[in-house]
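In practice, a research group might receive sequence data for several interacting partners and want a quick structural hypothesis before committing to experiments. The following worked case mirrors that situation: the sequences arrive first, and a predicted assembly follows.
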Amino acid sequence: MFEIFGIPSQALFGQLLIGLINGSFYALLSLGLAVIFGMLNIINFTHGAQYMMGAFTAYLLLQHTGLGYWPALIVAPILVGITGMIVERTMLKWLYKLDHLYGLLLTFGLALIIEGVVRNYYGSAGLPYTMPESLQGGRNLGFMFLPNYRAWVIVASLTICLGTWFVIERTRLGANLRAATENPTLVRAFGINVPRMITLTYGFGIALAAFAGVMAAPIYNVSPQMGAELIIVVFAVVVIGGMGSILGAIVTGFGLGVIEGLTKVFFPEASNTVIFVIMAIVLLVRPAGLFGRRA
Amino acid sequence: MLEARGPLLAVKDLQAWYGESHILHGVTFDVQPGEVVTLLGRNGAGKTTTLKSVMGIVGRRTGSIGFEGQELIAWQSDRIARAGIAFCPEERGIFASLDVQENLLLPPVIRPGGLSLARIFELFPNLKERLGSSQGTKLSGGEQQMLAIGRILRTGARLLLLDEPTEGLAPVIIQQIGKTIRALKEQGFTILLVEQNFRFAATVADRYYVMEHGRIIDRFSNSELDANVGKLHDYLGV
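A structural hypothesis for the assembly, expressed as tokens:
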């Protein structure tokens, strides 16, 4: 035990770790929102509910098919991603030419419906989801104790986020996506099936949310409102990073998680509001967000 | 020989609308394989809309657009592109979020027979030098125009729709683009060109259609150009 600025190191590193964990979820969710906003011009308010669907799908897979954590990490995002693509094909695609407000209202309504239906069948108390055995326990790093599962969440989230960034910024597929974000009409006139690309992009963004949901299941309770609580903070993260900015979503996600954790150590009273204070300042100083390009 | 194969592109009674406004009122023309055909006319005559209608990127259109014996009027633009038509828009459409190489490689190859990158760099040596450049939109206007033409030569499309490729460019660049269009014609490309600058068009085109108020009002071949210069001045108001 030693002290840093009069704070016991255990407490400091403990909160730093919690901050990184929260940041992992902020980053995965705001990344999905950024990808969807960039391509579809839709502010996807259903994102929190889709994150919750990921956690519930993992729970139901375990209950009804015996499929454990690792397969669920693959299967749940695919299943939830497919429901997302159905939503895009049947509802969202009619809204692209309208004001953002319509997409926001539709996705907000969908979130309320999904959360209501789940609450109706499973109550709001929350359901337990056991941690996979291979990730139980932890290790002593000397200056702090690091639970294995939390280390895994951070590594997995970082890997997925950086992988997504790489695909979008450095590959042919990503170039198609960026081009279609800029001028979908011309990209389509080059022979690229843009509507299909939009559907798959939405499905991918939702799959990211569901992936985060499965990872959250063993840490937080699986409950209908788990997404609603998180999504407000995630939207603040997206605004701070800059709507539609991939790198902004990732950096801001992790960064704000850590800032939130440190605030808990140094000024606990502000820990719930610090992100929104930062959001207000960023909106005043750089309305397009830290990484946003001015339209 | 060419006549026996029929036109590559046959447009009949094409009508097009942007929202409520009726832009094309029955446009009829054709382009034979291997030809360079130019649509001339003043601003707002409907030349660009005609190209966009062929490409399928206009709100609503009726009539007939025949290409290689297929009827395209009901097709979406991605399917039209894959049938073998490529479009170079007036505003060039270089993507700011893509670097020069990504811009060049963006249009997918839709069938064999397109130019190799090496051949494209022979036509546009400047492009090769700017390949490492970060942002496509940081190129000069002339380089952006070369990029916009160069990228559609790879795809294997046989009919190129070029919308005012010389607009706003320096005379030396215009000459280079003229040379390129003649080289492409020799390679067997068929080109439908929109121009306001008929002096430039005269250096590349085989035939001309003159448009006004969304209709074709006159047509003549390159050999008839001299006899029609007076009329053209009236049409174009130059």
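Before designing any experiment, note the following. Chain B has a mean pLDDT of 92. Chain B touches chain A through 26 residues (CB under 8 Å).
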